[in-house]
Amino acid sequence: MGSVPNPNHCVSRIDNLIEKFAEAFPEVSHPIRVCRAPGRINLLGEHLDYNGLPVLPTTIQHDICIAFTPRDDHVIRLKNADPRFSETAFTNTEDIPPSETGAWENYCKAAIQALNRRFPSSAYRGMNLYVDGNIPTAAGLSSSSAFVVACALAYLAVSELELDKDISRIELATLLAEGEHYVGTRGGGMDQAIILLGAQNCACKIDFFPLRTERVPLFEDHVFVAAHSLVKADKTGSALQRYNAGPATCRLLTALIEHAARQAFDDEIELERLGDLWQGPLFLTHEEAEALVRSVLSEKPFSMDELSRFLNLSPQAIREKWLGALEMPPEGLPLHRRARHVLTEFHRVERGRDFLLAKDAAAFGELMSASHRSCASDYEVSCPELDELTEIARQAGALGSRMTGAGFGGYTVSLVPQAALLQFLQRVYEEYYRPRGMPPDEAHNVLWAAAPSSGAGYTPSPFS
To answer: Among 201, 230, 374, 437, which one is most buried in terms of CB atoms within 10 A?
Structure first.
């Protein structure tokens, strides 16, 4: 379970992809090129990126590969090795209309439209794309953002633009993070940044606004093991509303704290996101930021009437400005717990980076478990299966275990001593997957040791 990809296997996969492309597009005469973008696992720092606070993810061996060629018209044609994704096509123009919510081509459209706006002299080139991915979908491993990044790399190439020359990786990551809002998700920029800037055997501490990255070596004698809860972590329909509730709530939190900061410090202070408490005009210490938050937020949930009185705005204005379609729970919004997660998770990322550098796996594992408890109880983005799986992982020998990704299902990540890996995998299978009817020979599809790969790029050297 979870071995590092064999380079020869990778080359064979690329050769196979090129053959499939030639079969799918027999009329093509242009040379076929291939690009790839890895998935990612977030080790610490959940729901922090859209608050402008740091995260600590790593790439994984699973990726999206796209074989592509330019076309002589403005049509983008997409085919997928996975039969769940139907063949489709659309016209590349200055303003590309989205398909219905959930359509897979919307992620390709997001990448192309973002680049069209960055390079307005674009000729709106068409291209043929054949997609082959092995990142589990709806699992919290960033398959959608990897697809966006891979489409962007293909489009740069057919537009005769060079990555690292015409546009830097940091600029492209920032551009695509904003561009992905096209599909309706209101996340931050973690996924695009780690996919483009990740490296083998490293995590990346990523800071935002502006985007900065620091590569941090992973433990040599411990591995991070990914385990699927078998609960789909989707971002469409009602699940999209649950996902977007986090950013909406944090925007409202920022408004409340800004209101208090103006009274305490300066009536001209403006806070765009919670991270501005530390990095913006206030430049507070952790202790000062926590004290300011405590002065604003009581431990009981906020009703709409209380929010209206505090902000001196009507409920309709509050909804239009911050909450949108987010439903107000009957008991009110638990803003204190949401803020507590953000504050403590920020601490965990900063300390986690230090523990990686100090090679202190036990301390890092404790942070992972504390992060899961915070995600579950304060941010309320876990689910019973994720809680059960992380508990089984800890009992099976993990130094720490947590959900990874936006939550509501998907994968967990656990820190396990290398010497105990096989026993750990067997016990997690026996206690979680066997009771759910999974045959032993299928466990490797949902339970595997992560092998951080290089960031996104072009082949023939996908893992160089």
So the answer is: 374
* Cβ–Cβ < 8 Å for 360, 320: no
Name the segment(s) of the chain with CATH classification 1.20.1440.340: 238-333
Q: Which two tokens stand for residue 259?
A: 């209101």
Tokens of 293: 């938050």
Multiple choice CATH, 238-333, 3.80.30.20, 1.20.1740.10, 1.20.1440.340, 3.40.1190.20: 1.20.1440.340
Structure token digits, residue 351? 């300390």
Tens digits of residue pLDDT in 86-128: 999 999 999 999 999 889 999 999 999 999 999 987 789 999 9
| Rg, the chain, Cα only | 22
Angle at 31 between CA 27 and CA 32, to 5 degrees: 85
Is 73 a catalytic site residue? no
Q: Which of 49, 63, 132, 191 is catalytic?
A: 191
- Report the first-to-last Cα separation within the chain, whole angstroms: 23
Task: Say if residues 51 and 278 touch (Cβ distance below 8 Å).
Answer: no
Give me the CATH code for the 7-219+452-458 domain, please: 3.30.230.10
pTM above 0.70, yes or no: yes
